[in-house]
Specification:
single chain; 465 residues; alpha/beta; Aspartate Aminotransferase, domain 1; Aspartate Aminotransferase, domain 2; 2 domains; 7-stranded mixed beta sheet; 4-stranded antiparallel beta sheet; 15 strands
Length: 465
């Protein structure tokens, strides 16, 4: 696991004594990259590769190379970073109806982070600072639906905020509003809504949550890391997508990943705030350091200007027309694949999804379907409670014949699942493991990975549940 190419290339277990020829290094890496690209180029991989257009990647890589060595922290040397960052934020605010958040003496603002988890971490930090400094709450809490991303759990753990978890309504796969309201108290700083949730692709009732936030004078963060750069285009195309952005009173911040459906390179996300007071909580100052007065606009210090430049270039090269065109193909493909699921009485879609959907079965363990589909090259994401598998439709799935292949293979997979329903399934739900590989339980799976990474240099203590 830790040395996947040990049978083909020497394993470095320390610094090499001499450098290698650059051409040989490039040839080796090209061989690996070409082979690994083939795993998703078929269009049978859920999510992960949102663009899939090698020409677009080459274009962004060329731009990245111009700025990769520049440090965004030193704006006097690379003022272009200010342009790129500001215009990325402006384009995202436009998409999220930032004008609806404009007030007479304040306005919506944002920042660029390292990804979805980075945006979520910064959002939780912002609400902690606001709760403590503006509301005098010494020990704030934040409430999330069970389906909201685990990055919120991680962020609360890292910055010392209590996390409360609200159940979802099984009928809708949205947060249970009554249960959510019952968790709010005088120490609540904010609550979370997903647009859409990673697992089920469902959008929480953001409008109702906004009213709840206004009533209790708390924040409402909309996690649009997955759906932020595609749901707005779906709404423009006429699909039934409820408003989840700054048009909704009570929404105070939004995260949206540019590295997903904005088709940027991995490593950027946008975090938007309705008011500057929330944004100001990100700043860190140290004025009496011997190295000079230090100010950081976020958790990160040094950042590569290449990612800002490539993200900006990618967005500008597509424009609204390009995003609409790709969104149309994605939504049409997603609903065609959902129709294939609905064609089987043994299968059940969860909630009312759009471009990302999850399905299960009340007749057999759905991982039997996954087991068979893996033999046809499909790579799904796995869920649990209940066991289910999901498909986040991206541009590679819009290739000719992929949706038809999904329907054909699913027909055989259901027959296989019925035949083997009394046997244990081989695959399971591991985030990042993507419903693949035999794994008796998550603890054993993680322990095996960690043991390999330690290279048997020290004993690994057993993980506890």
């Amino acid at each position: 696991m830790a040395y996947p190419y040990a049978d083909r290339f020497p394993v470095l277990r320390g610094m090499p004594s001499e450098g290698r020829d650059r051409n040989a290094i490039v040839a080796e890496l090209r061989e690996l990259a070409t082979a690994e690209d083939k795993t998703w180029e078929t269009g049978k991989c859920s999510g992960t590769m949102y663009c899939g257009d090698h020409d677009h990647y080459d274009f962004m890589n060329e731009v990245f190379g111009m700025y990769s060595h520049m440090n965004v922290l030193q704006r006097d040397m690379c003022p272009s970073a200010t342009r790129f960052e500001g215009e990325i934020i402006a384009m995202t605010l436009d998409l999220m109806h930032g004008t609806a958040a404009q007030s007479a003496d304040d306005g919506p603002v944002g920042l660029i982070t390292s990804g979805g988890s980075g945006s979520i971490l910064h959002a939780v930090l912002a609400y902690r600072e606001w709760a403590q400094n503006a509301k005098g709450i010494a020990h704030p809490n934040i409430i999330k639906p069970e389906t909201a991303h685990p990055a919120f759990n991680k962020a609360c753990h890292l910055v010392g905020v209590e996390l409360r978890q609200a159940p979802i309504d099984p009928a809708t796969a949205q947060v249970d509003l009554d249960a959510l309201a019952d968790l709010i108290d005088e120490n609540t700083a904010a609550m979370i809504g997903s647009a859409c949730s990673y697992g089920y692709g469902t959008i929480d009732p953001i409008a109702e949550m906004g009213q709840l936030a206004l009533t209790h004078d708390i924040g409402l963060h909309v996690d649009g890391c997955l759906g932020g750069f595609i749901l707005p285009w779906g709404e423009q195309l006429g699909y039934d997508i409820p408003a989840f952005d700054f048009r909704v009173p009570g929404v105070t911040s939004i995260s949206a990943d540019t590295h997903k459906y904005a088709y940027g390179l991995k490593g950027t996300s946008v975090l938007l705030f309705r008011d500057r007071i929330l944004r100001n909580g990100q700043y860190f100052y140290l004025t009496d350091w011997t190295g000079g007065k230090y100010c950081s606009p976020g958790i990160d210090g040094s950042r590569s200007g290449g990612l800002l430049a490539a993200t900006w270039a990618g967005m500008v090269s597509l424009g609204a027309e390009g995003y609409l065109r790709y969104a149309r193909a994605i939504f049409e493909t997603a609903f065609a694949m959902q129709d294939a699921v609905k064609a089987h009485s043994e299968l059940r879609l969860i909630g009312s999804p759009t471009f990302c959907f999850s399905f299960t079965s009340d007749d057999f363990d759905i991982y039997h379907v996954n087991d068979f589909m893996r033999t046809r090259g499909w790579r799904f994401n796995g869920q649990q409670y209940p066991n289910s598998i999901h498909m986040a439709v991206t541009r590679p799935q819009t290739q000719d014949g992929v949706a038809d292949a999904f329907a054909t293979d699913l027909d055989e997979a259901v027959a296989y699942a019925i035949e083997h329903k009394d046997e244990p399934a081989k695959s399971s739900a591991i985030y990042g493991g993507v419903a693949g590989g035999p794994s008796p339980d998550a603890t054993t799976f993680i322990e095996s990975i960690m043991a390999s990474m330690m290279d048997e240099q020290q004993a690994l203590p057993p993980l506890t549940a």
